[in-house]
Amino acid sequence: MALTRKPIIREPLTTESKDEQNAWNFTKIVSTEETPRKLSEFDMKHIMEISGSLDITEEQEKILFDNVPENEILIRTDGLIYLPWAFYSKRLSNAFKMKWSLIPDGGPEVREELIIWGFYLVIKGIPVSYSIGEQEFTENNKRMNYAQCAEGAKSNAIMRCCKGIGMALELWDQDFISKWKNKYAVSSFKDGRSVWRKKVVD
């Protein structure tokens, strides 16, 4: 007997800011037999119309774009400086409370030895940024399984989304990077390359 597929039913998703005129009209697919399409396939015309229309207060602007606390910056062994995902999440929550979210653009994908995952940063119902996060992934890595790597890609995406709206841009300023390294970091030569670490502060 042939199987009959159930129809795909689209239902609206409510958002925190649905009463605002420009709130993004999210759509979801309700079906267990179909693979959900990516959000990027929905309402792109409307997204383009409302992008850049978010109004924020002076207090919110100060929270988002205040100088980065230098002591919170970390450094990788290859010399790249960064801030943990919690820094960005905390600033967004301090500015907007619960009225922000990362909305996934589909599910995570494995590309060779990377997990990549796209996200929209949505504030008060308005999409303000889009970025693709990534995380190294090896199937036999006992220290970091698939779910943990997917979370790593999500954490990377929130950093990139916040960079896209102008948060913590000091981390990409070469003068700032040089001064920070001179003050807070030290390098040593190992296996033919420089290895960086943060100085131990007494």
Q: Any overview of this molecule?
A:
Mean pLDDT is 82; it is low at 1-21 and 25-37. This protein has a single domain (51-198), classed as 2-Layer Sandwich (Enolase-like, domain 1). A hairpin with a 5-residue loop joins strand 3 (74-75) and strand 4. It starts with 8 loop residues before the first strand and ends with a strand. It has helices at residues 44-50, 58-65, 85-96, 146-164, 174-184; strands at 9-12, 27-30, 74-75, 81-82, 100-104, 109-111, 114-123, 126-136, 185-190, 193-198. The protein is globular. It has 5 helices and 10 strands. Helix content is 28%, strand content 26%. The protein is of the alpha+beta class. Strands 5, 6, 7 and 8 form a 4-stranded antiparallel sheet that branches.
What is the H/E order? EEHHEEHEEEEHHEE
- Stretches with pLDDT under 50, minimum 5 residues: 1-21, 25-37
How many helices does DSSP assign?
A: 5
The quaternary state of the protein chains shown equals single chain
What would you call the structural class? alpha+beta
- CATH superfamily membership: DNA repair protein Rad52/59/22
Average pLDDT number: 82
How many β-strand stretches? 10
Overview in brief:
This protein is α+β, with helices and mostly antiparallel strands and 202 residues long. Helix content is 28%, strand content 26%.
Describe the secondary-structure layout.
Layout: E1 9-12, E2 27-30, H1 44-50, H2 58-65, E3 74-75, E4 81-82, H3 85-96, E5 100-104, E6 109-111, E7 114-123, E8 126-136, H4 146-164, H5 174-184, E9 185-190, E10 193-198
Antiparallel strand pairs: 1-2, 3-4, 5-7, 6-7, 7-8, 9-10
